[in-house]
UniProtKB/TrEMBL annotation:
Composition-biased stretches (Basic and acidic residues): 37-75
GO CC entries: Holliday junction resolvase complex; nucleus
Record lineage: Eukaryota, Viridiplantae, Streptophyta, Embryophyta, Tracheophyta
A Gene Ontology biological process term: DNA repair
UniProt-recorded name of the protein: ERCC4 domain-containing protein
Any one GO MF annotation of this record: metal ion binding
Compartment(s) of residence: Nucleus
Residue ranges of the region described as Disordered: 1-75
Entry cofactors: Mg(2+)
Length: 160
């Protein structure tokens, strides 16, 4: 029972006179030609599956390359957006500093002159002439306090 014998597919094998079984046609032997043809078919199928696997691997690599390209493009756009945002913030900070330092003060000051000063006094014409010479803005209107000049500074809303 220690020696290996061919595998029989037929259960009707009979022992000969010496206790030896005659091999039948239904035996599977490793060296037979039909088996080699089947192996060749298996190999070609394996070759097809290997080719298929290689194709899938190449497709997977191509997808990964495309994904990396897309991520690089997204990162580039995000960095550009952040850079633009920082430049905008820097611009607003500079403008705010200019307003706080009084650099734009003359452009933003408006004198609201009560109409009674212009109508009744001899100062009205001279006052308007001086404002025009200095480049100051003024409005003639009725103020809550009669005969007064109200000074207002209009500061624009600078970025959030």
């Amino acid at each position: 029972s220690g020696a290996s014998s061919p595998i029989s597919l037929d259960s009707d094998d009979e022992l000969d006179g010496f206790g030896y079984k005659e091999p039948s046609d239904n035996l599977i032997l490793p060296c037979e030609e039909p088996m080699q043809e089947e192996e060749r078919n298996d190999n070609t199928e394996e070759g097809n599956t290997k080719q298929e696997r290689m194709r899938l691997i190449k497709e997977g690599k191509a997808k990964m390359v495309e994904e990396k390209k897309r991520q690089r493009e997204e990162n580039k756009l995000m960095k550009e957006a952040i850079k633009a945002q920082k430049a905008e913030q820097k611009k607003y900070a500079k403008e705010k500093d200019e307003w706080e330092s009084g650099k734009h003060a003359l452009r933003s000051i408006v004198a609201e002159i009560d109409s009674t000063i212009i109508e009744t006094g001899s100062v009205g014409g001279t006052l308007l002439t001086r404002f025009a010479e200095k480049g100051l803005k003024y409005r003639v209107q009725v103020n809550p306090i009669r005969g007064s000049i109200l000074w207002k500074m209009e500061v624009p809303q600078i970025g959030q």
